């Protein structure tokens, strides 16, 4: 049996969430991003979107939930590098996933992905590294 908080290659965690208009508004407030695709439904539709587009970083933030569940209270994200091949619309459900690829000393390298539940289309993909948390103060 693997001791608690010991990660090995192949371990994974997935998390699904439907991103709502209310959450989009909260992220707007946090980020200050007022780009029309994200906050103006008419302009988003004029650009060819069926609805508001989810902030890319809000979608990728679901991967941080997966990373946290893998890393626990003793690790934090030291690297988060993702690309966004497709957009996600408000109201769509995304499944984020983190998979441990390698453990190198105290660093844990993971693959992260996010895909539409309905079609499996990848919305984001990349990598992340978990590093030890070093308490402050």
Automatic annotation (TrEMBL):
Transmembrane segments: none annotated. It holds the Pfam family MaoC_dehydratas. Residues 10-119 form the MaoC-like domain. InterPro entries: HotDog_dom_sf, MaoC-like_dom. This is Acyl dehydratase.
């Amino acid at each position: 049996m693997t001791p608690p908080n010991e990660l090995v290659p192949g371990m994974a965690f997935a998390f699904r969430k439907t991103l709502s208009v209310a959450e989009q508004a909260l992220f707007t407030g946090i980020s200050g991003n007022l780009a029309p695709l994200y906050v103006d439904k008419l302009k988003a539709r004029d650009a060819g979107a069926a609805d508001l587009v989810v902030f890319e970083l809000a979608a990728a933030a679901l991967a941080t939930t997966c990373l946290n569940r893998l890393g626990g209270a003793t690790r934090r994200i030291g690297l988060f590098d993702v690309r966004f091949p497709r957009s996600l619309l408000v109201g769509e459900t995304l499944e984020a996933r983190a998979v441990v690829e390698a453990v190198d000393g105290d660093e844990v390298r993971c693959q992260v992905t996010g895909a539409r539940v309905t079609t499996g289309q990848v919305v984001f993909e990349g990598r992340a590294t978990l590093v030890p948390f070093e308490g402050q103060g």
